[in-house]
Amino acid sequence: MKNNKESGNGDKALKGLIDELASKAATEETRELFREILTAAVKLGMESGDKADLKVVNSTLKELRYSFKVFSPYRNVKKAIIFGSARSKETSAEYKMAEEFASKITKKGFMVVTGGGPGVMEAGNRGAEPGKDFALNIRLPFEQEPNPYIDEKQRLISFKYFFTRKLIFIKETDATTLFPGGFGTNDEGFEALTLIQTGKSKPRPIILMEPPGSTYWTDWDRFVRRQLVGEGYVSKEDLNLYRIMSDVDQAVKHIEDFYKVYHSVRYVRGLTVIRLNHELSPKKLQHLNREFKDILVSGEIKPSSPVKEEIRKGEHLDLPRLVMKFNMRNFARLCEMIHEINKGS
Question: H helices within 144-223, ranges in order?
């Protein structure tokens, strides 16, 4: 097939077919985005003669489509990830700790999301209340068969690619817990930290769970402080992106408290909108302006009604809000501010 510049009337015919399909397959609100997806797919077919490239795109879209379908009915339920070693024995301290954590966090109304495999992942599915767990399995040539404690098979998703699996882990959850593990656990932990540090992921609690007597995360933290902070590769404030805990009840409370007053955040045309579960007192607002003036480009942190984009999309219109001109750089400080907001008036 000729390229775009040579195809002439063929381009118009393709555009017409794309527009027709978009009008039939998408809602009015999503039609333009869907048209862009179809256009990209058509261009890929015209421009790429590499079957391997098309197989990557095909598998990725299929995995994302199915994942969105599975998670869509549960979007209003808070979820916590449980990461950890696939090789942890049932008798290990981290296995028992993960099972206890899953049990207690799901009793608080959360759901848990695990990697679906054995070890710590199995403990998470095993400990969760019935009907309150997901499993995002990765197809590997070894050690990653789905564990037998996944309650509902329709909430088990198998992925070919790590990158789509990791995207769904972050996109569909609200808190991250990491138990001792290998390269994969560290990779997932560093990625979660990087995404929040750079603003690519919304703020969330990240808890490094260390069984009593273990120094796994304590040694890791020592390395981060000495090498990453000490050599200037990350800022000291970035250490506030995570907490090391050895007590399950403390970890559950920390996650609950993160959403005690803070609800969610939205970035809209130069404004950062922080939605709250209830209003803050004038005294608390003064405190925030005094303590976090350094992350503002200009102006102050102030109460607000929903902005136009939120009204248009009907996003949590009943909630009170704060708005500010955040510098979109110091996200660790933004997380500190959320912790301060949750302390109440």
Answer: 162-171, 183-197, 216-223
Domain-ending residue, one of 258, 280, 300: 258
Write out pLDDT tens, residues 68-103: 999 999 999 999 999 999 999 999 999 999 999 999
Helices 9-25 + 31-47 axis angle, to 10: 140
245 and 159, same domain (yes or no): yes
Domain stop point among 72, 94, 122: 72
- Spell out the residues 6+ positions from residue 89 whose beta carbon is closer than 8 angstroms to its own: 95, 119
Distance CA 293, CA 291 (A): 6
Total number of residues shown for the chain: 345
| Bridge partner residues of 244 (DSSP) | 208
Pairing of strands 321-326, 296-304: antiparallel
The parent domain of residue 301 ranges over 262-341
- Find the distance separating the first CA and the last CA of the chain, reported in whole Å: 66
